[in-house]
Amino acid sequence: MKAVFMTDRGKIRQHNEDNGGVFENRSGQRLAIVADGMGGHRAGDVASKMALASMKAYWEETKEIETAEEAEQWFRQHVSKVNSQLFDHAVQNIECEGMGTTIVAAISTDRFSTIANIGDSRCYILNESGFSQITEDHSLVNELVRSGQITKEDAEHHPRKNVLLRALGTEKTVDMDIKTIIFEEGDRLLLCSDGLSNKLSCAELEEILGRDESLEEKAAAFIKLANDNGGEDNITLVIVEFLDSIESGE
Questions:
Q1: What is the pTM of this model?
Q2: Which ranges carry the PPM-type phosphatase domain (predicted)?
């Protein structure tokens, strides 16, 4: 397993309120996270940093995850804890009132990958079946698309495109989507904030992810193209690739 994390402030925003990373538990299994913070007075930065730090700490104390059920339960237990921490912090600190963060995270083993998400940060997969989005956005616009009120094309330029229906830390409790997939040799996961997914087409995401380049080169290409296409938002991504031990050198 190989992974790379990369983030960029973009060309317009003064601060980067995204956070993310790739972390190992006691058995060397990987947890990849992207969190896109929101809230005034840089509270979004606080929310995404707190969420990332807590998830990292919980994961580093975790022993081996052996089954998909264990991975899914890990997310239910620990994301709920983090949600409570963020909500309580916002209640106790008026400058953080209303703060929250999206989160998309993946636990990857050599047999499967379990993905959890809240908000509109996304996870995509490139495998022998092609390129597809694994997660569903928890956004007003996506709900309008799902209910048939607008088309996907309408959604691209909808004035309320950034309105979220779910975020981590904004309510006492939160629902998350959790999905487990088979993760096989040669498969690649892309986790990203909307600063990337809003600026690149699916065809562009697939083309870069499928290149015969290092993960670092692919990540840099994603960020360059998002900035070339406007760079109005922070841009954050993680790429996870499953290679055999000979190819990866591990």
A1: 0.94
A2: 2-242
2-134+164-243 homologous superfamily: PPM-type phosphatase domain (3.60.40.10)
Could you identify the residue written with the tokens 């998350």?
A: 176
- Extract the residue ranges of the chain whose pLDDT is less than 70: 244-250
> Rounded distance, CA 86 to CA 9, Å?
23
